[in-house]
Amino acid sequence: MELKMPSMKKLYPILVLTLMSVSFCAKKPLNTDPIPTHKIITIESSYLQETRTITVWTPPEYETEGLTLPVMYMPDGGLKEDFPHIANTMASLIEKNQIPPMILVGIENTFRRRDLTGPTEIEKDKEIAPVVGGSENFRKFIQFELIPEINKTYRTSDLRGILGESAAGLFIMETFFLSPELFKYYIAFDPALWWNNHYLVRTAQEHLSTFPKKPITLWFAGSSATDISPYTNELAHTLDSLQVPLLRWNYSDEPNEKHSTIFRATKEKAIIWALNPSN
């Protein structure tokens, strides 16, 4: 019996969806990191209609010196997600005086792809998860529920940042463009800028033309991932051509890194550069 192979025309949408899924996968820890001393708080979110678990790490200086500190927020921030290795990284950098002391606030996932994606007009995007496009409510949760709770519970300064990779990187870049005044520091590793036919890249100039006249820092990186690197490179060219006043930014092109390796490979230099204005 002759076996008929599907045509490339039929295979192409499947291949595209598979490629997007690989670089947009649910968080699966690849390393076992020591879990640092931390505190867990829960927030009943009216915006998300669910209970959210928050993990908080404070550096030793917070207790011993009574300092008021800036805060770094992090999606994918559960104990089984990226929280342990970023908390340990920050602890090491603080101990070496490479960054100032800072509080880390991790947001544990519930429906990751719902929270970290904006609306999309692309049908294939919608196949990534049963529900997508919830970034606006997730941002409202952070702005109006999480940040006030952290400010009430901890001694915090007005300086705050946000850090993440892949889908979280997409959310960070969307927040940078749509609500830039929410954070001082934006750090995005391999952001999934292909989302919604690379909408954020296509509209970057429009959003940057009305950017607030205040100091904001952006650090982002692109790996060799073929569905990401063209858009991170394009965005870097756009930023370079516009020269937005008071925006301090850096793009780290990482063609030797994969989507699965870029976060750990570049996290130290990203955090050091972003948190040291003299760089």
Question: Would you mind describing this structure in some detail?
Answer:
Helix content is 39%, strand content 20%. With 279 residues, the protein is an alpha/beta fold. It has one domain (41-275): Rossmann fold (3-Layer(aba) Sandwich), CATH 3.40.50.1820.
Structural key phrases:
about 280 residues; alpha/beta; Rossmann fold; 10 helices
Q: How many domains make up the coordinates?
A: 1
Number of helices: 10
Spans where pLDDT lies below 50 across 5 or more residues: 1-19
Radius of gyration: 19 Å
What is the average of the pLDDT values?
91
> What is the CATH architecture assignment?
3-Layer(aba) Sandwich
Tell me the major beta sheet: 8 strands, mixed
User: By CATH's scheme, which homologous superfamily applies?
Assistant: Alpha/Beta hydrolase fold, catalytic domain
Outline:
The chain is α/β, with parallel strands linked by helices. The chain is built from 10 helices and 8 strands.
Describe how the helices and strands are arranged.
Elements: H1 8-22, E1 39-45, E2 50-57, H2 60-64, E3 69-75, H3 83-95, E4 103-107, H4 112-116, H5 135-153, E5 156-165, H6 167-178, E6 185-189, H7 195-202, H8 204-208, E7 216-222, H9 229-242, E8 247-253, H10 262-275
Parallel strand pairs: 3-4, 3-5, 5-6, 6-7, 7-8
Antiparallel strand pairs: 1-2, 2-4
